[in-house]
Amino acid sequence: MMSRRRSTSIMLSAASVVVALTATACGSSSSGGSPGVQPTNSAASGQQALCGGQSGSGKVVIGSAAFSENELLATIYAAALKECGYKTSTKTFDSREVYYPALKKGDLQVVPEYAATLTDFINGQINGATAPSKASGDINKTMTALRAELPAGFAVLNPAAATDKNTYAVTKQFATANNITTMSQLAAYSQTHPLTLAGPPECPTRPFCEPGLKKTYGMKIKGFKQTDVGGPLTVKAITTGKADLGLVFTSDPSIPKAGLVALTDDKQLQASDNLVPLVAKSLATGAAANALNAVDAKLDQATLLSLNKAVGLQHGKPSEVAKQFLQQEGLS
To answer: Which pTM value belongs to this model?
Structure first.
C-alpha cells in the first residue's frame, strides 16, 4: 500500500503531502487537570458522555507520528483524556519505527493509529518484511487480524468510521457529467474510453495501484503520468486534463478544494485504514477507554476532512481545533 504510515520499506503516502503544504506540527505539549473547578451542567453532561460516568488519574503520554493529521489526533486524544481527570502530554516521533519501541517500553501509553497499516507493521515485525498482508478491505476482518497479533500489554479500541488511505480521484465535472461515483462505474466507462492514470513512480508495479485497478476492476489504462504521492503534481495532472484519474488520499482536504472527487472503492481494493487508538493494556477499560472510544465514534470521514482543513489549510492551532471539536460534539 502507498501510505505515509507504512514502514519505511514501503512507499510513503499521503498526508505527508498535507504536512509539507502546511508545516503545522504540534510538537510536545503538556496539560494538567483543574482540581476544584466545578463543571457547569452542560460541561458535566459532556464529561458524562465522554468519560462514561467514570474518572481517571495519573499521567498519560500520547505519541504521534510527525505529520499534521496524526499530531492533531494526538492532541484531541490528550484533551479528551484530560477532561476525564488524566494529566496528559503529547510527544511527536519521526515514524512508527521509533514510537512503537517507546510504546513497548512504557514511555508512551496511547497512539492514534491506522488499522490496516498497524496490522501489517506488526505482522512484519513478527513474520518478516515480506510476510503476506493480513489487512483487508473489510474493517472487521482487519481488526480481528490486528487483535490476534497484538503483543501482550497492548490493546486497540474501537475503530473510527474515518479513514486515511489510498483512493482515486477525478474531476467533479467529469464525475457529474458521466454519473460516476464508484470505481466500478469508472471501470465500465474505461471499456470504451481508456484512461490515463497519474501517480508516483511505484504505481505501475504496486498491487494497490495500476495492477490492482486492472485486476480487481478490469480497468482499461492507456497511459501513466508519473507525478507524486497524492500531492500537488497529481492534483495538477487531473485538473489540467493530463490524467483522467490519480492516486490521492481519503483524508486530504485539498482534494475537494481542488474541484476533485474521490470515488468509492466498492470492491475494497484498498485495505481498511480506519483510525484506531492503540493503548497500553492498563487503559483498555475505564475512563480512558470510554473517552477514546467516544472521540472515535464522532470521527467520520467528513469530520476528519474538516479537522484536517482547519489545521492544514486554515492554519488553526491544533489545541484550539481539538477544544472546539470536543465542544461541538458534546464531549466537554
So the answer is: 0.84
Return the residue matching grid coordinates 493480513. 134
CATH number 3.40.190.120 is the correct assignment for the domain at 166-262: yes
Query: What are the tens digits of pLDDT across the range 300-309?
Result: 999 999 999 9
The DSSP annotation for 296-327 comes to HHT--HHHHHHHHIIIIIT---HHHHHHHHHH
Q: Residue 198 pairs with which residues in a beta bridge?
A: 225, 246
Would you say 198 and 204 are in contact if contact means Cβ atoms under 8 Å apart?
Answer: no
Residue with cell 503476506: 132
Give the 3-state DSSP-derived string for 60-81, with helices as H, strands as E and coil as C: EEEEEECCHHHHHHHHHHHHHH
Please give the pLDDT value at position 42. 58
Q: Rounded CA gap, 72 and 318, in Å?
A: 6
Burial label for 32, CB within 10 Å (0-12, 13-18, 19+), is exposed
Place of cell 468509492: 264
Stated as kind and residue range, the H or E segment containing 93 is: strand 87-93
The CATH number for 16-163+273-328, chosen from 3.20.20.150, 3.40.50.300, 2.140.10.10, 3.40.190.10, is 3.40.190.10
Contact 155, 284 (CB under 8 A): yes
CA 252 from centre of chain: 10
